[in-house]
Specification:
By secondary structure, this protein is an alpha/beta fold. The protein has three domains: about 15-45, no CATH class; about 50-155, Transcription Regulator spoIIAA; about 180-365, Rossmann fold, CATH 3.40.50.150. Helix content is about 30%, strand content about 25%. It is built from ten helices and 16 strands. The protein has helices at about 50-65, 105-110, 110-125, 135-140, 180-190, 205-215, 225-240, 250-260, 280-295, 315-325; strands at about 15-20, 25-30, 40-45, 75-80, 90-95, 100-105, 125-130, 155-160, 165, 195-200, 220-225, 245, 265-270, 300-310, 335-340, 360-365. The longest helix is centred in the N-terminal third of the chain and has 17 residues, at about 50-65.
Length: about 375
């Protein structure tokens, strides 16, 4: 509960937070118009200033570039991961010389004039694209869906573990590419050689293209978004791979394939976020139904990889849904790995929801 607020605290202000005894508690962003009026990002007695965020940018760059050495293996990675990098309201992905920014609160938007030059210097980039979700802009009072420092960015090509992908920062979902699945794409490809592969909810073809390059016998990929399928086809062509891309709803298409008796050796289901709140039963049902359908399309003894990017769904809850979907059709899962987002998507120890991406790697027996 928030008590008194000083009169000089304006929407987007950096404020000192005191506990009920009046002792220093931490620092945060204040915006009375937002659904979360106070966002505390630093706990402790020391008051932080605006230079705190410039230091946070440097720490984020050190993690990706010096510790993880991501520049040696990929041209695409998460540069800033919001609260986990002590940069609340900002997500930034690096695509070669381009930074794609997603801004989610007013305070972050107000500081872009200072943050963008610092980001360019820290990550060796020279072009920036800024996007703001219209609903968040309305709730937060963000004055524009873009920014005066934002530039027009044409679709560009990047390399990831030897695979070429075309990315559209302006037209794709979120920042234009899901860097969080980078290591999982590599792991998936390593299992694909000589196998028939099905990629459900394929987006722009990350898993399917990687599998085809690794020597999959055949690859089928399905997605409902027409623009994503077109980009996936381009990615297949860029890598000179023949992949059967299908524009269709995964649920409807899957039922048809089951009726036709179609099954694959290796199946992955990587749907968009289904759960948008803690009591979202409809989202739980969608995960159960999709996994039930996907499992029916796995050959006996085949491999199954299933994903959830819903932060409101815990890893244990997700696993229970998947196991239930298998057991209800009298199939058993030999779960041999559990993974998540890459190391460029760190999590905070006091914010479990930041571990949003969950994957189960299974053999169906």
């Amino acid at each position: 509960m928030i008590g008194e607020v000083t009169r000089d605290a304006k929407p987007g202000s950096l404020v000192e937070v005191l506990d009920k005894e009046g002792q220093p508690f931490g620092s945060g962003f204040w915006n009375p118009k937002a659904g979360m009026p106070l966002r505390v990002f630093d706990h402790g007695g020391e008051v932080v200033g605006e230079d705190f965020f410039l230091s946070a940018i440097q720490r984020a760059a050190e993690l990706r570039r010096r510790i993880l050495k991501l520049d040696e293996t990929t041209e695409a990675y998460r540069a800033i991961h919001g609260d986990a990098d002590q940069m609340p309201g900002l997500v930034a992905d690096k695509f070669g010389r381009v930074l794609s920014l997603e801004v989610t609160n007013l305070a972050a938007y107000q500081r872009l004039d200072t943050w963008i030059p610092a980001l360019n210097e820290a990550f060796d980039t020279d072009k920036v694209h800024v996007r703001v979700d219209p609903d968040l802009a309305r709730i937060e009072g963000i004055p524009s869906l873009t920014h005066h420092l934002s530039q027009e960015i044409r679709p560009l090509k990047i390399r990831e573990h030897g695979v070429t992908f075309q990315i559209d920062p302006a037209g794709g979902h979120k920042t234009g590419f899901f860097c969080d699945q980078r290591e999982n794409r590599k792991k998936f490809a390593a299992m694909a050689e000589g196998r028939s592969v099905l990629d459900l909810c394929c987006y722009t073809g990350g898993f399917s293209v990687s599998a085809a390059l690794a020597g999959a016998e055949e690859v089928t990929a399905v997605d409902l978004d027409e623009n994503s399928i077109e980009m996936a086809k381009r990615n297949g062509n860029l890598n000179q791979q023949r992949i059967k891309f299908t524009h269709a709803d995964a649920f409807t298409w899957g039922r048809t394939m089951i009726e036709n008796g179609r099954q694959w050796d290796l199946v992955i289901a990587d749907p968009p976020k289904f759960i948008h709140g803690k009591e979202d039963q409809l989202g739980h049902n969608k995960y159960h139904d999709l996994n039930k359908l996907a499992l029916k399309m796995v050959k006996p003894g085949g491999l199954f990889v299933t994903c959830s990017c819903s932060g409101m769904l815990t890893a244990d809850e997700f696993e229970k849904i998947v196991v239930s979907a298998a057991h209800r059709q009298n199939r058993r899962l030999q779960i041999f790995d559990r993974t998540g987002a890459g190391a460029d998507h760190p999590t905070l120890s006091n914010y479990p929801e930041s571990r949003y991406l969950k994957l189960l790697w299974c053999r169906v027996i």
